[in-house]
Amino acid sequence: MKINTKMIHAGAEPDPSTGAIMTPIYQTSTYVQEAPGVNKGYEYARSQNPTRFALERAMAEIENGKFGLVFASGVAATDAVIKLLQPGDEVIAANDMYGGTYRLFTKVFEKFGIVFHYVNMQQAENIKPWINSKTKLIWLETPTNPLMNITDVAAVAAIAKPNNTLVCVDNTFASPYLQNPLDLGADIVMHSATKYLGGHSDVIQGSLVVNDQSLRDQLYFIQKSSGAVPGPQDCFLVLRGIKTLHVRMQRHCENGEKIAKYLRSNTKVARVYWPGFEDHPNHEIAKRQMSYFGGMISFELKDDSDAETRRVLSSTKLFSLAESLGGVESLINHPASMTHASIPKAERIKNGLKDSLIRLSVGIEDAEDLIADLEQAIG
């Protein structure tokens, strides 16, 4: 099945009782049993919900996986993956990643004895010196948040496999429409479904997709036991969002390319981070493992003073100054004070994330209007 068709039909089955073409919102906390232990496959809504199960099937299908699990947020999905580990286990993580993931690793899980090593993964070979018998997980984003670095998923998987190390890819920036890490050798794909999958800035949710039955069972046990499950209304919203993911991503990509090229041509812009440029360090890898380059862009001004950066951030009219990304509306973000504020400044600077960096989530408005908005803001 072609991907555009898959997005419409993934996980969708007409309601058997009414024929409703959209999965109903099963707003219930429990289910009546015919006798003790005799039920219709549903006992308690933390463990099972038909709306959630439909979304989990859809997530698996659009990521070319076998099993999907959804959670109350992207961070909750990440939390479940780390709970696969034990004290003393080691994780190799990308040195450029979402600040909330870094906070979870350093402020929550380090105190339980899990060791994290932060490595520049733009060259997969950089991972090798950190691999040892205690390495149980490699965690990466590609493209990364917010510097748009690209990691070769297949190369990382090839390094991890001989050591029986799991590879988890945060695929939020690409979405399943642009990239499918399981096809490249990853073991787990994570999404903040809040972003492109939901697509309308009206839901918080996370997801995991895997191929291995044992891994799925472990993650389902964690999901059920820890209880970070989304409600059926949220599942319905993401199911609805998936149906238009392909058409939205096409416009995100078209607009993203136009805006990246505009920013590069602007004499007041010093640098633009976007993997679609041929001189991006890993452009060829991005071209190989992604179907296109997405709608996420970061840039720096030539006048990188705090005052000028903040002036531009506060001057846009169509780009709303806000956290998050992936909605139909365009957003402008200041990573240093917003999405990545939980990472110490020295660590941010060391990894190339300057206080002057501006991140754009390019929406699906008319590209000319968005360019005009940036033009008047940059001045």
Describe the protein in words.
This protein has 379 residues and is α/β, with parallel strands linked by helices. The protein has two domains: 240 residues, Type I PLP-dependent aspartate aminotransferase-like (Major domain) (Aspartate Aminotransferase, domain 2, 3-Layer(aba) Sandwich); 134 residues, Aspartate Aminotransferase, domain 1. It is 35% helix and 15% strand. Helix 4 links the parallel strand 2 and strand 3. Helix 2 runs parallel beside helix 8 and helix 3 crosses helix 4. The protein starts with a helix and ends with a helix. The relative contact order is 0.13.
Task: Give a nutshell description of this structure.
It is built from 13 helices and 12 strands. It has 379 residues and is of the alpha/beta class.
Strand portion, in percent?
A: 15-25%
Q: What multimeric state do the chains show?
A: single chain
Span between N and C termini? 47 Å
Indicate the CATH topology of the largest domain. Aspartate Aminotransferase, domain 2
Order of H and E elements: HHEHEHEEHEHEEHHHEHEHEEHEH
Please provide the count of β strands. Answer: 12
Computed Rg: 21 Å
Low-confidence stretches: none
CATH superfamily of the largest domain: Type I PLP-dependent aspartate aminotransferase-like (Major domain)
Largest sheet: 7 strands, mixed
